Amino acid sequence: MNTSIFIATGGAFHCTPDIWGSPGSLTPLTRVYSPISGQAWVELGGQRTTIVPGGLYLIPPHHSLAYAPDPEMMLNWFHFMPASPLVDARLTSLRAVHCFDAKVSDRWVPVMRDGSDFFKAPSPGLTFRVQAMLSELIGLLMDTIPDAPPDKRLMPALRYMDDHVMETVLLADIASSAGLSPEHFHRLFRAQFDTTPFEFLLRRRMAKARQRLSGGAYSVKEVAAQCGYDDPYYFSRVFRRHFHCTPRDVRSGKTRPRP
């Protein structure tokens, strides 16, 4: 299993009602929050969780998420995506915000405070500490989540989707990798992940596109082509739907990321 982690963005953020909040949005990324002051609420799967200073919270990916400050909050945060679609799938199987116990929070809150430095000029030591923190949080949750997906027949399909994440693939090909008919596979996948195979694939593709853009080595047109889009303007619209900013903003580093 690939245990590497793509850390998309993070830092410190002053959450106020005018610039932070959503009545319901989807993201391909897992979120880790560590409030500094104030508080906020996050609603996932009909369960509302109040996040407060001193806590360390993980919000699973690929779910509709509503959130707002109450009335405002200072927050340290990271957004990340496991390289392995199997790990991503297991995190997705979480149906609620997870609050880690005090022992875990006390160990990693100091690393969360260094999030801004990680994206400005990360030292080798800080890079290892952030990776170690996220790896431990994932590991703790993996120990508590039953093997996922419960239907093992989806596992080959998840591997196939990851191998072809930057390509245009057919539902029949994905289903065939699992030895299932397209209709049966689609039903099983949607029942497990509350989304379609193509939407799951698209979210991971957009997350990888963001990774390539943030490095600055590729133009928007090149990344669009790598994702299978002949029209970079259409690619930009799809990208903006997922991240609420343009690919050009990410590539230039001008946009201020939001938690």
What does this structure look like?
This protein has 259 residues and is of the alpha+beta class. It folds into two domains: 5-144, Jelly Rolls (Sandwich), CATH 2.60.120; 154-252, Homeodomain-like (Arc Repressor Mutant, subunit A, Orthogonal Bundle), CATH 1.10.10. The protein has helices at 85-92, 102-113, 115-120, 124-144, 154-163, 171-177, 182-193, 197-214, 220-226, 232-243, 247-252; strands at 5-15, 22-25, 30-44, 47-51, 57-59, 65-82, 98-99. Strands 1, 2, 3, 4, 5, 6 and 7 form a seven-stranded antiparallel sheet that branches. Helix 5 (154-163) crosses helix 6 (171-177). The mean pLDDT is 87.
Secondary-structure element string: EEEEEEHEHHHHHHHHHH
> Into how many domains do the coordinates divide?
2
Shape summary: globular
Please identify, by name, the CATH architecture of the largest domain: Sandwich
**Share of β-strand residues:** 15-25%
